[in-house]
TrEMBL record:
Pfam families from the UniProt entry: Allantoicase (PF03561)
GO molecular-function term, one example from the UniProt record: allantoicase activity
Protein source organism: Saccharothrix coeruleofusca
Similarity remark: Belongs to the allantoicase family.
Reactions that this protein is recorded to catalyse: allantoate + H2O = (S)-ureidoglycolate + urea
Pathway(s): Nitrogen metabolism; (S)-allantoin degradation; (S)-ureidoglycolate from allantoate (aminidohydrolase route): step 1/1
UniProt EC number: 3.5.3.4
Source species, domain of life: Bacteria
Domain (Allantoicase) ranges: 19-166, 186-317
Name of the molecule in the record: Probable allantoicase
Keywords: Hydrolase, Purine metabolism
GO BP annotation list: allantoin catabolic process; purine nucleobase metabolic process
Length: 339
């Protein structure tokens, strides 16, 4: 691999495979922005035409007839220190941008693209050529959450790779915590308002959703209500971190969500807030630290007013009673009868 920098062996922090998302682009007239972060290498089939023209496995904007540049913003699936960027113009020959700039910023929480600020240049305006990978070293050593690819003035880019080292937020790390809502840990869906497009069991399935159909999605509501899913937790426990993942849901993500809990051992009809009603972003893994949550045996995800969710994770610790119940159930179900 002569001439290829060592940092290409570091994780791609922007890849869809680790939860990255192209959250905004000013134009995608010829080819969709989401292609930029596909984990697969770009491919091309000559003579394949759709309603936008030749089908390209990349992001392509219209031909500009006025001054300006085109841009796309990527939320990193793994925030971290960026060591290098690859701008790949594979199969773009007469329609690649002659120059590109890459900027980056660090944001707290889950801002909308319009709320992002503090951009700094990590790859200065640099020349590009068609149908090749361009490797750019990044010297800035700080944690970033978003990058912005600016192409001058227009054209097509097949892939954007952002290689670096993930840097987690310590406030979202819980030593010894387990996912109390995980199917594999014994949780179960026990109620649901609507499952028109897909099963709510997908919400608590192992792994990340690879496509929209691997999540839970409701029909469009035409009333004043909202949709919900109720989960019996793996055992009685205290939830300390909630993850609400809208990955792949873009025009059909809920606008807001809340998580409520109750303790069926004490007051099964008394629900309390674990996560109050909170704004959500499309195609985003949201993580919320929960403080001073009461013990719960059940949780209910409420989405406002409707839409789709890829995964629900509720990380926390089992109580002594919760662990004892799990151990007792395990022993009963694995005991062998004596002859």
């Amino acid at each position: 691999m002569s001439g290829v920098p060592e940092w290409v062996h570091l994780p791609d922090l922007a890849s869809r495979g680790v939860g990255g998302s192209v959250v905004w682009a000013n134009d995608e007239s010829f080819a969709e922005r989401e292609n930029l972060i596909s984990r697969a290498e770009p491919v091309h089939r000559a003579g394949t035409f759709g309603h936008k023209g030749q089908v390209y496995d990349g992001w392509e904007t219209r031909r500009r007839r006025e001054p300006g540049d085109d841009a796309a913003v990527v939320r990193l699936g793994l925030p971290g220190v960026v060591r290098g960027v690859v701008v790949d113009t594979a199969f773009f020959t007469g329609n690649y941008p002659p120059f590109a700039t890459v900027e980056a910023t660090s944001a707290v929480g889950h801002p909308s693209p319009e709320e992002l600020a503090g951009w700094e240049v990590v790859v200065p305006r640099s020349p590009l050529r068609g149908d090749r990978k361009h490797h750019f070293d990044v010297a800035v050593r700080r944690r970033f959450t978003h990058v912005r690819l600016i192409i001058h003035p227009d054209g097509g880019v097949a892939r954007l790779r952002v290689h670096g080292e993930p840097v987690p937020d310590p406030g979202l790390l819980l030593p010894g915590a387990v996912d109390l809502a995980a199917l594999e840990n014994g949780a179960a869906v026990v109620g649901c308002s609507d499952m028109f497009y897909s099963s709510p069991n997908n919400l608590i399935a192992p792994g990340q959703a690879a496509v929209m159909g691997e999540g839970w999605e409701t029909a469009r509501r035409r009333d004043d209500g909202h949709d919900w899913v109720e989960v019996r937790l793996a055992g009685a426990g205290v939830v300390r971190l909630a993850e609400l993942d809208t990955s792949h849901f873009k025009g059909n993500a809920p606008g807001w969500a809340a998580v409520r809990g109750h303790d069926a051992r004490v007051a099964p009809d008394r629900w309390f807030d674990l996560l109050p009603r909170t704004r959500l972003q499309p195609d985003t893994r949201h993580r919320f630290r929960l403080d001073a949550a009461p013990e719960a045996t059940h949780a209910r995800l409420e989405v406002f007013p409707d839409g789709g969710m890829a995964r629900l994770r509720l990380f926390g610790s089992l109580t002594d009673d919760g662990m004892s119940d799990l151990v007792r159930q395990y022993q009963v179900l694995t005991a062998t009868s004596s002859s």
